[in-house]
């Protein structure tokens, strides 16, 4: 079973409270999602492999560490995942970015894929699939299914708020995928929204409602 980690650093908890507030407007919501994503990237990248490199400091020759291993691609699930990309790129600026478009049918809560565009070498990259919300888990599972069909095998899923229901189905469907969230909330309501949650992440990020 992959790792499940709640990244509950005090700065992240504080910032999450800001965006959970229904009075938080689009500008601040966008800025704070970006900041949380950057802080999470620090922890999500903790197990990146290192290798020795020989360098010359102004004082002496020295063996130091440099990143090795697979290169990263960030894969936002559209739309709301877009809000997390720039924050992660601040820490991993050379990452490539692939996009997968998914929307949830409001009646059935079933996801539909409408867009898929990846860097050519996703099979050899470490992928960070990002979406602020893991609710029923349908969107994350379908996005990861699509990535695996195209050869991806090294996948971490990063969200801001997760429902226990979504974590369970995602772990069952993709036990090899590590899941990172800033908060594990209480439950899903009858409309499939996370409680207490932060509402519709896409609408809040883009001001569409
Ligand atoms: C939201 C969210 C996730 C999905 C989570 O997207 O950003 O992608 O719902 O729900 P699930 O776990 O039950 O699948 P939405 O479908 O509202 O699209 P949007 O980002 O374009 O608003
Ligand atoms: N998608 C959202 O944007 N918010 C939720 O609470 C659930 C799904």
Map the helices and strands.
Blueprint: E1 4-6, H1 10-20, H2 26-44, E2 50-56, E3 61-67, E4 71-78, H3 85-91, E5 96-97, E6 99-104, E7 111-117, E8 125-130, E9 133-134, H4 138-149, E10 155-162, H5 164-173, E11 178-184, E12 187-188, E13 194-195, H6 201-206
Judged by helices, strands and strand pairing, the structural class is alpha/beta
Largest sheet: 9 strands, mixed
The ordered H/E elements are EHHEEEHEEEEEHEHEEEH
What does the average pLDDT come to? 97
Shape: globular
Number of strands: 13
Distance between the termini: 38 Å
Rg calc: 18 Å
Ligands bound here? 1-O-pyrophosphono-5-O-phosphono-alpha-D-ribofuranose, uracil
Number of helices: 6
- Beta-strand content estimate: 25-35%
Range of helix content: 25-40%
Low-pLDDT windows of residues? none
């Amino acid at each position: 079973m992959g790792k499940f980690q709640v990244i509950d650093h005090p700065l992240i908890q504080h910032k999450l409270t800001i965006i959970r507030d229904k009075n938080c407007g689009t500008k601040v919501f966008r800025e704070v999602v970006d900041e949380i994503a950057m802080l999470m990237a620090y922890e999500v990248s903790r197990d990146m492999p290192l290798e020795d490199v020989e360098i010359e400091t102004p004082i002496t020759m020295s063996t130091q560490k440099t990143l090795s291993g697979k290169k990263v691609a960030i894969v936002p699930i559209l739309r709301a995942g877009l809000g997390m990309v720039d924050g992660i790129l601040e820490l991993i600026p050379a990452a490539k970015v692939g996009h997968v478009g998914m929307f949830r049918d409001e009646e059935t809560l079933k996801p539909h894929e409408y867009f898929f565009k990846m860097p050519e070498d996703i099979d050899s990259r470490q992928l960070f699939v990002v979406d602020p919300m893991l609710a029923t888990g349908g969107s994350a599972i379908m996005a990861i299914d699509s990535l695996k069909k195209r050869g991806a095998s090294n996948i971490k899923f990063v969200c801001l708020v997760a429902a226990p229901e979504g974590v369970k189905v995602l772990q069952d469907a993709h036990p090899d995928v590590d899941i990172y969230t800033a908060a594990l909330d209480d439950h899903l309501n009858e409309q499939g929204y996370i409680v207490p949650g932060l509402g519709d992440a896409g609408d809040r990020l883009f001001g569409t409602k």
